[in-house]
Amino acid sequence: MSQYRSWIFVCAGLAAGLFAQIGQAGTLQLTLYLDIDARQFLNASHQSILIVVPNPASEADNTVIALTLPPPIADSMKLIIEPDSNLYIANGTVSSVDVINMGLITSVLYGNAYSFNGVQINGDGKGKDGTVGIYYEAPSNSQPLITGLALFMYDSASGKPSAPSPINTFTLNRFQSRYISQPASIIWVLVGSDISNGSVIPTGAFKSATSYSTYSNTSPRTRSTFQLSRYLEVTFNAQNQASIHFDTSINAFAPGPYPN
Q1: What is the longest distance spanned by two Cα atoms in the chain?
Q2: Position 218 pLDDT exceeds 90
Q3: Which of 64, 75, 231, 241 has its CA 20 to 30 A from that of 120?
């Protein structure tokens, strides 16, 4: 099986050299268990489930919320993450606390290079192994643009969406090439409020050790306040499956199903 078709996930606590990368096996399946107390808590506090692929990190110390999911009606939900990667070009510029609005999206293969001429993304052949290369072959009046990788991830009960989810964001200047590394096998799951799909959040707002973080940003252009729980870093087994449960006592997810 080629490196473009298989996915292997290993614990983040292992040595960095043991990390596999997204795109190196099959479809991932994450079962999220939420009992009635968890569902009532999230609904009462207007919180959604948030999915993040944090590596490769976005520029300017930002992180993208790839997907927001409402609490399920039943005791569990199955999150599907497909291996095929996509390259997007955003409509307009994006900075912290903005939301990515993907315009042009195309499927890509790691190790290949592509170019964007202001109208469409074209294949340029072999690039740098383990990356997607993108060259901005822009007209003279072109402005910098936002690009990045996107993956299909969704609740299995809802079915596959029409568009993938952006997982990172980078600025591309005219006549500049960028090589975006294949994502490492690290997935964060957390909950939060006042956050949309594709939200660009300062990385410093994410906490793994504290139960809650509230972040506010004020500038002449925008003001945004949102709330995040601490994140759980998910480890998948050899069958590309994992399960986690929401613990209301810490307002965060914990490994495995609920204890008996």
Answers
A1: 64
A2: no
A3: 64
